[in-house]
Amino acid sequence: MGRPHVARQITDAVRTCRVAHVHGPAGIGKTSLVAELALGWASSAPVLWYRVRVGVNDTLLAVLFELAEHLRSHERPHLAEVMTASLPRIDSSLVSRVAISELSHLRGVIVFDD
């Protein structure tokens, strides 16, 4: 498939399903393509690019922390406040529910990149 066709498919999937999984062999340009699309999306909605690194930030709590900081930077501090109040033992199921609630009211894109 040509790249414009794939870009259109990804954009349509994000628009209609709110989820797109871009996959394929290493080195074919998946990250570059999604980065180009995200640059365009960023003009109308916040984009959080989360680069997953095995053994470094591949846990749910790590993702929730980054999400909380992203939301705080967009004047939505509630998730970060809940996480801070939960220290030192953060209940990931409770914090996940707060995250979903916070995200349900916002327009934006989260990219998980490996």
Short description:
This protein is mainly α. It has helices spanning 3-17, 30-41, 60-73, 78-86, 92-103; strands at 47-51, 109-113.
Order of helices and strands: HHEHHHE
Low-confidence stretches: none
The percent range for helix content is: 40-55%
In total, the number of domains comes to 2
Q: Quote the average pLDDT.
A: 93
Strand order of the largest sheet: 1-2
* Content of β-strand: 5-15%
Shape type: globular
* Main sheet record: 2 strands, parallel
Number of helices: 5
Radius of gyration: 16 Å
How far apart, in Å, are the first and last alpha carbons? 23 Å
- The secondary structure category is mainly alpha
How many strands?
2
Q: What features would you describe in this structure?
A:
By secondary structure, this protein is mainly alpha-helical. It folds into two domains: 1-44, no CATH class; 46-114, no CATH class. It has five helices and two strands; from the N terminus they run ααβαααβ. It has helices at 3-17, 30-41, 60-73, 78-86, 92-103, and strands at 47-51, 109-113. A two-stranded parallel sheet has the order 1-2. The longest helix is centred in the first third of the chain and has 15 residues, at 3-17.
Layout of strands and helices, then pairs:
Blueprint: H1 3-17, H2 30-41, E1 47-51, H3 60-73, H4 78-86, H5 92-103, E2 109-113
Parallel strand pairs: 1-2
Helix pairs in contact: 3-4, 3-5, 4-5
Which structural traits does this protein have?
single chain; 114 residues; mainly alpha; 2 domains
